[in-house]
Write a structure and sequence with these properties.
The protein has 325 residues and is of the alpha+beta class. It contains three helices and 20 strands.
Length: 325
């Protein structure tokens, strides 16, 4: 019985190995592709905003350090001016004194009105008392407004983040003295871009909206690395020392260091190339192969990915038919 089972399994395996494998074919042709060059780009924020002190005084505390993420309006530091506290005490005393004068002026006005109603007081006395009460009220309001100014100045001791982003630099420490308008920290906005510096001869090939490819982090080529798409946002209309500047939008640059360099592939013209589908390639022992329709395996050297295909630098000719599994 066991021998019979083994014989059946052997027949099934032989039948499966003899059955044809379903596959598609692809005819290699020459096509126009962008001639891409590898250049170095630098990660930079769209803008860097300084967080400045609005009043002069002594820094009581610093709540952030380099690398922290902050939101717009977050308090980064606190500046304290001791003179403001003394002015506040003076104004509080003036307010109390002025309230007492206002209360006395109201009593005098009420007494003058009562005497006028009883016929024993003149109308002039009533008018004088009303005037004194108005002066006392307006003086009290003025002193209270002065106090509100001091309260606002004290509140402005908080150094706030002008925008959300990452803290690049903190230039002050607790206990140091600062002047109004002095920068306490520098904030890099959350939107990062890649800044290119291309030779002048490539300037005419570059325009806003052109797609580009970004390599993995680092400056070294990695075999089989996945390239990320990006798009040129702005080409600066000035050539400085033989180079043109351009800004590139790439999603997901928030975890990069500001000033970090990476490889970018930009189009500098067009040329003809041989293309094969990505799934027609397979790798064995570090070498790339394709299989022709007649069953021959061919070693190929691959180049840059182009859309859904890959450029073949050597190993194939136009007209060859490769098999796609």
């Amino acid at each position: 019985m066991t021998r019979l089972r083994l014989a059946i399994v052997a027949v099934l395996i032989a039948g499966l190995s003899a059955s044809p494998v379903l596959a598609e074919t692809w005819t290699v042709t020459r096509a126009k592709v962008d001639d891409r060059k590898a250049v170095i780009a630098t990660v930079e924020p769209v803008r860097q905003l300084p967080a400045r002190a609005r009043i002069g005084g002594t820094i009581a505390e610093v709540k952030v350090r380099e690398g922290d993420q902050v939101a717009a309006g977050d308090r980064l530091a606190l500046v304290v001016d001791q003179k403001l506290a003394l002015q506040m005490q003076t104004l509080d005393a003036r307010i109390q004194a002025q309230q007492a004068q206002r209360d006395q002026a109201r009593l005098d006005f009420d007494r003058a009105q009562e005497l006028r109603r009883s016929g024993t007081g003149p109308q002039v006395r009533v008018e004088e008392a009303r005037t004194q009460l108005d002066i006392a009220d307006r003086t009290l309001k003025a002193v209270r407004s002065e106090r509100e100014v001091i309260v606002q100045q004290t509140a402005e001791g908080a150094v706030l983040a002008p925008s959300g982003g990452r803290v690049l630099k903190v230039v002050a420490a607790a206990g140091s003295v600062v002047l109004p308008g002095e920068a306490i920290a520098t904030i890099a906005t959350e939107n990062y871009i890649l800044r290119l510096q291309l030779p002048e001869r490539h300037a005419r090939f570059l325009k806003a909206g052109d797609p580009i490819l970004i390599g993995s982090r680092g400056l070294q080529d990695e075999p089989g690395e996945a390239l990320r798409p990006g798009r040129v946002k702005l080409v600066y209309p000035e050539i400085d020392q033989g180079r043109v500047l351009a800004d590139v939008e790439v999603p997901g640059l928030g975890d990069y260091f500001v000033g970090e360099r990476t490889r970018v592939y930009v189009a500098t013209g067009a040329r003809e190339a041989l293309l094969v589908p990505k799934d027609a390639l397979y790798r064995r022992f570090g070498v790339d192969y394709v299989r022709l329709k007649d069953g021959t395996e061919v070693v190929v050297q691959v180049g840059m990915p182009v859309g859904e295909g890959v450029e073949v630098l050597s190993g194939l000719r136009a007209g060859d038919v490769v098999v796609r599994p």
